[in-house]
Amino acid sequence: MQMLGLVPASIAAGSPSAVAAVLALSAPSLAHLSPLDIAVIAIYFVMVIWIGFYLKSKANTSEEFFMAGREMTAWIAGLSFVSANLGSLELMGWAGSAYQYGILAAHWYWVGAIPAMLFLGMVMMPFYYVCKTHSVPGYLKLRYGQGASVVAAFSFAFMTVLMSGVNMFAMAEVMKVVLGWDMNFSIIVSSLAVAAYVALGGLRSAIFNEVLQFVLIWGGALLVPILGLIETGGWNGLKARIAHNISTGVVAPGDYTHMWRSMGHFADNPMGIHWTGIVFGLGFAISFGYWTTDFLVVQRVLAANSLRSARMAPVIGSFFKMAVPFIVILPGLLGLVVLQNANGSQMQLVGENVVKDCARNASDTGLATPSVCSAGLQTTAVLPATQKAVLSGTGDVQLHSYNEVLPLMLVRYCSPGLLGLGITALIAGFMSGMAGNVSAFSAVWTYDIYQPLINKRAKDEHYVAVGRWATILGVVISIGAAYLVMNAAGIMDYVQALFSFFISPLLGAVLMGMFWKRATKAGGFWGLLIGTLTSIGLWAWVKVDPAALRYVALSPDAKDMAENMYRALWSVSVCAIVVFVVSMFGKARPVAELNGLVYGATKLPEEEPVPFYKNEYFWMILAIVCFLALNIYFW
Amino acid sequence: MHNSGISIWFFIGTLLTIYGAMILGYGIFELVVGRTANVILANLHAPVWWGGMLLALGLFYGIRFRPGRNG
Hints:
The structure holds 2 protein chains of 2 kinds.
Chain A: H1 18-23, H2 35-55, H3 62-67, H4 74-83, H5 88-101, H6 114-130, H7 136-144, H8 146-179, H9 183-221, H10 223-232, H11 234-247, H12 275-293, H13 295-302, H14 307-323, H15 325-338, H16 352-357, H17 370-378, H18 384-392, H19 405-413, H20 418-453, H21 460-487, H22 491-515, H23 521-544, H24 549-552, H25 560-584, H26 616-633
Chain B: H1 8-33, H2 46-64
Helix pairs in contact in B: 1-2
């Protein structure tokens, strides 16, 4: 089905290949793949499986399987560190947010990531690396003992596979919308591929594939903003066209191209966020929690081949993270001015709920429920003429959601081959996220649950076997979670909220343990537990009584995102206070026992002097300068 | 990573070489037959220069990090 007049006509062959015929169902989809596109995708799958089989012989010991032999260079660890976080859900979701909220979405890539990444590399990494822990719960065990470690390990393992399932479901849904692929097909193929290459080659295989996927994401997605800027006449041309679209009512009023100017009050910006929430909630509680204590990303850096590489990896990663808005946020902004309907009018994207309200009937002859669609459209900024065209049901104007902006832009500019590369980038992003989850699950299950609680004295080969089976088990549970979410979509929101409950308190416990010698075992355990319960309690309070938002997020004008940020800030604060109070009533461990674990009690190994361009401090300063320059330029 | 078998950069080089050759090949085919795909800015022939860039990058990494050559 040709849609919007943007689908590239395949001139490489007269008819779709047999493979394409199997893949592409009759469901309406944004893009239609040519045989060349299918070949690009198929070659990618062959390559990732080849890497898995090739690396099987290099994953024989537990150190090799779970820590990639600690042989990764700073570049590989750094790219893998960023890539594990760069899932397609994130790419598409933030492109959609940029369409909706403008450049404010870039806060999640800059203030919401760079300070935390640099802090991890320059301040925290030496302790993680010197104590030779295999995981973040492993660090808690060394610092606070078994109790805090088990709490962190179980919550991480449980939430990691659930999140993997949510991602798997989301990927299948995206493939259905974009390509018309059957959801079962997407879930089975992607999970089999991930299970194969991670179970075979362990963390090394996951890291290799993540670096590969990172290159593909850039190779597949960078062309869109380049062509988009050529079409709009550069950044100034884009700004002028957005301003024009606002004046004609096509784009909702707002400041789409400045990051900080509208942050003075909750009601001044469409996200409903105050700058304190961005700086302290996102910039500290959420981003430090994620980038410095989530084992999914920290595991990649622990695999570095030296302390210097471990410190350099997040610094290298920070440069690429800063650049990601050019392939995510910019396409979202470009979508505001370049996307067109089949009748030539400006396309206006809407929320998922409105798209569902305006779904066409099974025989594709008109809208299923015109009255519901009409009511839904009234809540949007869609122009009356466009609303009329949608309600007419002729198909001249079809509604698409914000999250579809990236695929729509791909379809707009990419001819056969390039479209396949773009779709491969999306698939690669999904698979890297899934592989990150299952490899981290496998390590935490084996080292922090199975070894201390079930079988303490097995041979090394036994733990490698347990790790391989844990990888497969993780994928199987993820598939189960994906089908659970598929049958009860509301669960997805709860799973994502659940994940946030554990990350921020963990930050409080790790920071207090790492920077305060007096913190005790009981302090760590109770801090983690009460911090987590605080997060859950605040979330439940707002669910039961929405008016509580004025207390949790400090303003009745706050929206969901602001609530998440302030909740994270509360839970990390409560955790730190509880660690402090409980520790003051307990007996601290002797300083000699804290060597390698705590600031002030650790003698860090001296590193060989290197030229300035290989020095991590030089690159950190450069990263800070770039970070400040970007924020000032887009102020 | 170069000393313990095939480098990741070789895998990347191989994949980019294959993709670059395919996309550049398609771009040249478009030029030769004089018909372009129904996409915006098709007159810029993105498959030619983007495919060419991928191919050059792929060849560089593929040769620079080929197995048996110390990085």
